[in-house]
Design goal:
Rossmann fold; six-stranded parallel β-sheet
Length: 367
């Protein structure tokens, strides 16, 4: 049975799109032995445990451990490789996890190295963050034997960074079986609910959404914001300044399995991203029969075709976003068309089962 070592900065119970992808994919590939080295982000997790089909080793004692992860993880990987003889390594994102994989690859050039790109940051933000490690950072891409990108935007980034290996777009997905088990569109009230599911960070443009909601004026609608992040206090302050406390609800972080309980109560999903790797929250909303509004940035155009599977709004433009929200609130025919087309697209192209089949094909190519 092939043995694959995963490098990932975070893993369950810390959940983002990348962590969900690892869990969903590895659970569906029982013919592999997956092991992982990750960071003990809060210092409270077990140093070793098995979750699903992945045996996890956590190192460090808190978030600051991320900065030492490339060196510590590569050293541990060397030790484990002597014992376990891995058939491939898999880096989740071109960050410290990618650096750890690079360091391991330099000493073990015969071991295939798969790099997955999930980053939602803009090219400029990536450039700023990696300025002092640029030679190493570029090698994360250039030393890979195969790159899987979740969007065409990220595939193009890999090529710009000098990747010469095969680069394949395999997106993230959704679990339609789980959605169908929970589906119930019995609304608790008759208000029109605009919802977003997002990390509360600059790149996701939640400040623009709040300002756009203000432009809708007084009406029978609410804005639900699901998620947490570094801008939470700033966004709550903005809501107070705009006198929207009675209409905007900060619901906080919700476990992934419970997200649909909120999506099924909503009428429109909105995320006016400034940058985006793909945008799994959009796919989940489409699967939950919601019309979506997004910006034409990053990987969003892979699934959002304007007036067909969703509606585009301009970046950093509250007035334009408010106009698009009003359009969906008032045009039932457009809403139904977007809902039907969006759900069909997710069913055809964005299910975890089909994603896992493609990932299995990649592993077969490199091992």
């Amino acid at each position: 049975m092939p043995k694959v070592l995963i490098f990932s900065l975070a893993y369950l119970p810390f959940v983002g799109g990348a962590e969900v992808a690892i869990k969903e994919i590895t659970d569906r590939l029982p013919d592999y032995e997956f092991e992982m080295i990750t960071v003990n982000l809060d210092g409270k997790q077990k140093s070793e445990e098995k979750i699903g089909n992945v045996f996890i080793r956590r190192i460090g004692t808190g978030k600051q451990s991320k900065y030492f992860f490339p060196f510590a993880a590569a050293k541990l990987a060397e030790k484990l490789h002597l014992e376990r003889k891995f058939d491939a390594i898999w880096a989740m994102m071109a960050n410290q996890a990618g650096l750890a994989a690079l360091f391991f690859k330099k000493k073990n050039s015969e071991i295939p190295y798969l790099l997955t790109l999930q980053e939602g940051d803009s090219d400029f933000d990536i450039w700023l963050r990696t300025f002092f490690i640029r030679p190493w950072y570029n090698q994360i891409y250039r030393r890979a034997d195969y790159i899987q990108a979740i969007s065409n935007f990220l595939a193009n980034r890999a090529k710009k960074m000098g990747a010469t290996c095969p680069v394949e777009v395999v997106p993230n997905g959704v679990d339609l079986g789980r959605i169908k088990k929970q589906e119930s569109r019995n609304k608790e009230n008759n208000k029109k609910i605009i919802i977003t599911v997002s990390r509360l960070e600059k790149k996701n443009g939640i400040d623009i959404l709040i300002k756009a909601f203000k432009e809708l004026g007084i009406g029978n609608h609410e804005l639900w914001i699901i998620g947490d992040g570094s801008l939470e206090n700033d966004l709550k302050k903005l809501v107070r300044e705009l006198n929207l406390e009675n209409q905007v609800k900060f619901i906080g972080k919700i476990e992934p399995d419970n997200i649909y309980n909120y999506l099924f109560q909503a009428d429109i999903f909105v995320r006016p991203s400034r940058s985006e790797g793909l945008g799994n929250a959009f796919l989940e909303a489409m699967a939950a029969s919601l019309p979506i509004i997004g910006t034409p940035v990053g990987g969003i155009p892979d699934f959002l075709e304007d007036d067909e599977t969703g509606i585009f709004c301009k970046v950093d433009d509250p007035a334009d976003l408010a106009k698009k929200i009003k359009l969906l609130l008032n045009d039932n025919n457009l809403r139904e068309n977007l809902i039907n087309n969006g759900k069909k697209l997710v069913e055809e192209k964005y299910q975890w089962n089909s994603v896992s089949i493609k990932m299995n094909d990649i592993f077969n190519k490199i091992i």
